[in-house]
Amino acid sequence: MVVNFSLNKEYFIRINKALTYIDEHLDSQLNLPLLAEVASYSPYHFHRVFKEITKETINQYIQRKRIEKAASILLRKQEISISELSLMYGFNSNSAFTRLFKNFYGISPSEFRKLSPSKFSKISKVKSKNGQVSVSFEEYICNLENQMNWIIMNSEISVKELDKMNLAYTPIIGVSNIGLGFQKLIAWAQPKGFMDLPETQMLVIYHNSFKITTPDKIRMSIAIKLKEPINSTGEIMPKIIEKGKCVVGRFELLQSEFEQAWTGLFIWLNEKGYHTANKDSFTILYNDYRQHPEKKSIVDLCIPIS
Fold first, then answer.
1. Backbone angles phi, psi at 221, to 5 degrees
2. What is the pTM (predicted TM-score) of this model?
């Protein structure tokens, strides 16, 4: 999805507030008047701007986010029943939840739960001959042992207590907008001298999982780490990542290897018995891959754990 960046900058700030609110209140009552109030718009204006930026109606977005949240819980928490999930996220009945889930992923929640998250890298939607949306589960490596060997050979993995980070960030939707997000943030940081500091670090924060959200709908924050917090300056906003424990994988990756690295890191985490925390994963970048002799990115992939 290509976002129309000619829209008023204020639109993105306000809509981002609504998107954050939705993500944090998926198990609560969500409706147009409430979200319009969060974004400081009239309901009519909010609905129009929301659809222009996200390419979804408000109801479509909320329903998709609730289904995706349920999918992530199905993969991680075997102790929560499908009926509990249905009630938790406001579906009228277990059958209604199952029907919507199957429409979205092509399989039932119970079938989805049986799939091993360590064997599949992502979920991608495809259309069958009859026009129905189904799901293709693409395996990265034919077995777990090979994947673990790849991780051991290509990374340094550790469990670290990361310090609190003060960030300035700009929100984006869709992987096609990552480059635009970096351009916008660098254009803001360069005149302030932040890009010249040796300790400068750029980050990508993932508010969705590529396992359950298609790349064109992934919501991310492109960020820069700063010594001191900033006040909001329009499209560039302050964010804090609190101090916490993470599984950290140090990699040198071609652009085509990022997905494999993330998949392998989650496999390593599961194999070692760690449990993910209810926090966003993120990438810390240490170089501009375009200046690397092999066009590789030197990165830390960070998964918060409880």
1. -125, 125
2. 0.78
